[in-house]
UniProtKB/TrEMBL annotation:
The keyword Hydrolase does not apply. Keywords: DNA-binding. This is MmcQ/YjbR family DNA-binding protein. The keyword DNA-binding applies. Gene3D superfamilies: 3.90.1150.30. The lineage of its organism: Bacteria, Bacillati, Actinomycetota, Actinomycetes, Mycobacteriales. GO terms for molecular function: DNA binding. It holds the Pfam family YjbR. It comes from Mycolicibacterium hodleri. SUPFAM superfamilies: YjbR-like (SSF142906).
Length: 141
């Protein structure tokens, strides 16, 4: 039995996250566990999730969940906007709650980029690195 959908296409931040995630080479979206998830063979980002940090499962519907490098985890977890997501936290994922503070979409782009690089096949990472540098990319740096 499939999971019920737990999002709407007009949810806050979903359009922005889609634009970021689907710009990566080979990226595609599919609904997983009732939520929009972004894959390149493996999942590299998901919109919406939940936390079990207090023992109870608490839904966090407007967030992005990404895989993070172990070297970045401690610093990110000190930031009140980040949470340890239920089920996937143990596998190296963290969530960024969009409702705690104004969303910095450049930061989200960097988090999604780092997550993509942790799970994507080498050929997809090469394709990403071989893209021409655009004026938009220069403005973000």
């Amino acid at each position: 039995m499939p999971h019920p959908l737990v999002f709407d296409d007009d949810d806050p931040g979903l359009a922005e996250l889609r634009a970021i995630a689907l710009a990566f080479p080979g990226a595609h979206e599919k609904v997983s566990h009732g939520r929009p998830a972004f894959f390149v063979t493996k999942m590299f980002a998901m919109y919406g999730g939940s936390s079990k940090e207090t023992g109870d499962t608490v839904g966090i519907p407007h967030c992005v969940i990404v895989k993070v490098d172990d070297s970045d985890r401690a610093a990110l977890q000190r930031d009140e906007r980040f949470f340890y997501p239920a089920y996937v936290g143990v596998a190296g994922w963290l969530g960024l709650d969009f409702t705690v503070a104004a969303v910095d979409w450049d930061e989200v782009r960097e988090l999604v980029d780092a997550s993509f690089r942790l799970v994507a096949p080498a050929r997809m990472i090469s394709a990403l690195d071989e893209r021409p540098i655009t004026e938009e990319w220069r403005r973000r740096r």
